[in-house]
Specification:
The protein has 196 residues and is an all-alpha fold. The protein has one domain: Arc Repressor Mutant, subunit A. It contains ten helices and two strands; from the N terminus they run ααααααααααββ. β1 and β2 form a beta hairpin. α2 crosses α4, α2 crosses α8 and α8 crosses α10. Belongs to the sigma-70 factor family. ECF subfamily.
């Protein structure tokens, strides 16, 4: 029954039903931005919200090509966002632009600035995930940060479900070792495993 309702929702979205799009957006928008923030971005000009917006626009244009239900839509959308992010990186890398980082901009302007970016930058989970190799970081971000399942993560990243499971296992193992080696007393829960 749930799958049939999901199929109907996607069919309504294909037909341009704004309520169906709003429901899909409500299901995935916040998770998509959180996931994009956890990807390795070599380009400081990459903005998760902009990439997510472009992914939604691409999804709206290509929804007629999508085959699947509401559950499959998440993996498809995240895959689009991954491709948009890669494309933006290639373009910015080719242009060799280097915008000022937040602390450089603050120093150049002489102001104290908003402390919010510093708080976000100090987030333990983001810092830990950022230490992982790219594939493991993407998988851990998909599964443990935004709550995608293995199938949706596989579709989003364009890798097999087995590769997702292996990368997830390796990523969590690395995180456990990192936390243990750092001697931190922080109780971190990732993937249902507490106190890595």
């Amino acid at each position: 029954m749930v799958r049939a309702q999901g199929d109907e929702l996607v069919a309504r979205a294909r037909d341009g039903d704004e309520a169906a799009w709003a429901e899909l957006y409500g299901d995935h928008a916040e998770r998509l931005v959180v996931w994009l923030r956890h990807l390795h971005h070599e380009d400081p000009a990459s903005d998760a919200e902009d990439i997510a917006a472009e992914a939604w626009l691409t999804a709206a244009r290509r929804v007629a090509d999508f085959e699947g239900d509401r559950h499959d839509f998440a993996g498809w959308l995240f895959g689009i966002a991954r491709n948009v992010s890669r494309s933006r990186y290639r373009v910015s890398h080719a242009r060799r632009t280097t915008p000022l980082a937040a602390d450089q901009l603050e120093a150049a302007s002489g102001g104290t600035g908003d402390p919010a970016p510093q708080v976000v930058g100090a987030d333990l989970a983001r810092r830990l995930v950022a230490t992982l190799p790219e594939r493991e970081a993407q998988v851990v971000a998909c599964i443990d940060v935004v709550g995608l399942d293995v199938a949706a993560t596989s579709l989003a990243l364009g890798i097999s479900a087995t590769a997702v499971r292996v990368a997830h296992h390796r990523g969590l193992r690395r995180l456990r070792k990192l936390v243990a080696a750092g001697g931190t007393a922080v109780d971190v829960t990732i993937g249902g495993v507490s106190g890595m």
